[in-house]
Amino acid sequence: MFDDTSLLVYTLFYMIVSACFVLRTTEFVSNGITVENLLEIVIDKEYHNVILHHIKRTSYSIIVHSCLPLVYLLGTLLINNNEKAFVSVYFYELIFLALLPIIGSLSVVSKWKSNNWANHPLSIILSRYNPVDWTIVAKNISTEYQCLQKLTLSYGTINRTVVTQNWIISIKLYMVYVSKKSESSFLVFSSDIHNSTPDGTPDSIQFINIQVIPIRSRIKWFFVRIRSEDFKTLEEHIGHPIQIADNVKLQRSRTERFIEVFRDQVSQNPIYKDYSSAELAEDVCAGCLVNPPDVKLTKCCEDSNDVPNCTSCQCRPMWCVDCMAKWYESRQPQNDTTIWLSSKCTCPLCRQMFCILDVCPLENSDLAKTN
User: Which residues of the chain does CATH 2.30.29.30 include?
Assistant: First the structure.
């Protein structure tokens, strides 16, 4: 009934499925085909106890992944009927080889699990901060992890970087690194640029690798990988500047590049004189709450028969040009940046239609001075 072709198909299919399972592809993760979901009975929920969750996740991942060769060989018993096939001739030898990684992983994990997981690499890192009881540090980190103010940056479905109030956590497939923010230095040591983004939008994206160097002794350095556009956000959550190596040049994000083009166009538009920047000196932008309002939406473009026409906005100036640019960008189709400047948007408050030609700088504003 079965022949060599079926064994070949089974082998290719098993390799693809195993690779997707180990590498945690988006399709497998979205359908819950992960170690932590399959073993949710023994693995704590991440939100409730992030440290214990990842201690068990990394441990059981090593065991489960080491069993994949053995599962493959057992599957050939159902698929292969050719006694001359390689897996049939050397079946018992292959079984012995497949058992070796399982035995090795079980011995390693059993050592980690002894003394209430005190020998796990993550527990050893935490013990550097409290040699008496590492679980106290683990509880503090778990408490901070439950706060909504934490920052989470993902690189694919395997690696994540989490920044809480006092800690930075680098989550990887088989290991989790932890360091206290106030006792660490940060260095951007390399970068790489890709021509397409993970979601398929036609734009280049830069990834940067940041080395986290704990000051406390006997804690190994590690690195995190993030998008360059998340650099400022990460720096803000860390609370002190991140050094950048001389050979690394950060690429500006798409939003930053668009803001620059938006500002250049707005500076060329007619100046709005019914309000001046002096009259709004005590006001702040409704978006960033930092900069003073410096633009007003008023109809300056010509009507067209092909698209909905713009209308005048009666709202008081409440936005700075940068926040207006961000709002304008957020209302555009993200997969086609070529039509942004010729597209339209609605006022954040009254929803009146406007285009980029209708964004006018206020009189005496810094933006108007470049007009």
Answer: 147-244
